[in-house]
Amino acid sequence: MADSSPKKHIVVVGGSYGGVACVNKLLHYLSKDTNVEITLIEKCDARYHCVASYRALVQKDFAKNLWIPYSNLFPKGSPHRIYRGLVKDIYNDHVLATPIHDGAESSTSSSEPQRINFDYLVIATGSMIPSPAKWKVNSSKEGLRKLDETREDIVQSERIVIIGGGACGVELSGEIKYAFPDKSVTLIHEMPHLVDYPRFPESFKEEARRYLTNQGVEVILNERADIEGLSRENSVQKAERAIKLQKSDRVIHSDLQFFSIGIKVDTGFISTLEPPPDKVTPDKKSETTSFDPQTLLDAKSHVIKVRSTLQLDHDAFPNIFAIGDVSNADPVPTCMAAVAAGETAARNIVKLIRKDEKVAAGHQHHHPHLHQHQSSEAMTGAGNNSDDETNGYNCHSWNKLENYRPTQTMMVLAMNPSGGVSHLPVLGTWFGNIAARVAKSSDFFSARFWREMNMPRP
Ligand SMILES: Cc1cc2nc3c(=O)[nH]c(=O)nc-3n(C[C@H](O)[C@H](O)[C@H](O)COP(=O)(O)OP(=O)(O)OC[C@H]3O[C@@H](n4cnc5c(N)ncnc54)[C@H](O)[C@@H]3O)c2cc1C
Which residues belong to any copy of the FAD/NAD(P)-binding domain (predicted)? Predict the structure, then answer.
């Protein structure tokens, strides 16, 4: 595009479902644009396909599908790059990332944080779900080692207890029982229903319970068991335990316990964010000086609050987007939602870049106070769209930004290689093995995500 406009640098933090979908969409629209550079910052050396983690846990030869190299993500010779590092702080025009070197299992303390500037930033740092769903690691090697250790724990045990009957607990119980039918597997859940998420019908929850029970898993509902030392941070424990249920007198003996409750996001990096001085109009100054980055986060879950355009929910940061599990864009976080949000964020960034180019090409004289980036309200038409020159963010609505629509309610629970239970949109109800097998449980979308990374299947 116009060589006269300054080079734009897009930084995407987090190279998984949301981040990679965003990068691929940006490449799709901007591949011929020599004025744009993309940097993907990711702490791991390969992309972790966590959806397949439980199958890989019980079936060793499936583990090769889990970690997808980044080597072919960007075309050879392109100006784009992958930066291996852990983002610790986010500012309005740069991030600080601690580099992670090959072989290092955690960020080395001697590494100085590096400054990486951006014009546009996409935060796609996702969530933590207790292992063996996701691992707190910075390398594929370490992740695979921990997976192997946990598989060995299962092989060595006879009576397994899983605490937490959300989607992860249900899939974990089903996979273990199917792969090791001689072991006893007990799933303990505090609520009256398994997978007790809003917007899902009881028939689906009941079918999940029935399916697991038929498979031989003992499902205990409406019960709570606190196991000493077992927590989301220490979610796999290999120990002989007599577990006392809280409401009844029943005691369950087990030699391996899994904690499978809750999704957690780490958004501590947002605490350094402040509005850029050039975005402050005199009448807004007092408001801006008292800016508290915590207001960008949901008070309870700590996810980043975004507008329907996926820009941060504050007028001062129209160039920063958050997508996937780390954001509140979807009520139920899923990889399909992260992909859809990544693509929407990419299209909106392309629109903003095109608009900047128009400005650089000579439209400024119509808008003396026009800022480089526009507020999402001005861009979506959600707010006052007139040329209100007292507000430094407003402008003509040349191209409206796209509003992200949360994905339709859908869930596929894969409990073994031949099936599981699904709740699908349009069809609006659950189906047994066939839908689950076709949609997920035979391959866990592995073909799709390896293709997306331009990698041949191992
Ligand atoms: C067992 C299991 C089964 C699932 N099944 C399904 C399913 O069938 N369908 C479905 O739609 N969803 C499913 N999900 C949910 C889905 O996996 C998540 O919603 C999805 O992972 C969210 O993607 P994301 O890109 O937002 O974040 P993540 O997948 O969490 O990725 C975040 C990335 O950011 C990197 N990162 C984090 N912090 C930093 C930092 N500070 N600096 C640099 N890099 C960083 C991480 O290393 C990671 O690569 C499943 C999840 C699990 C665990």
Answer: 9-332
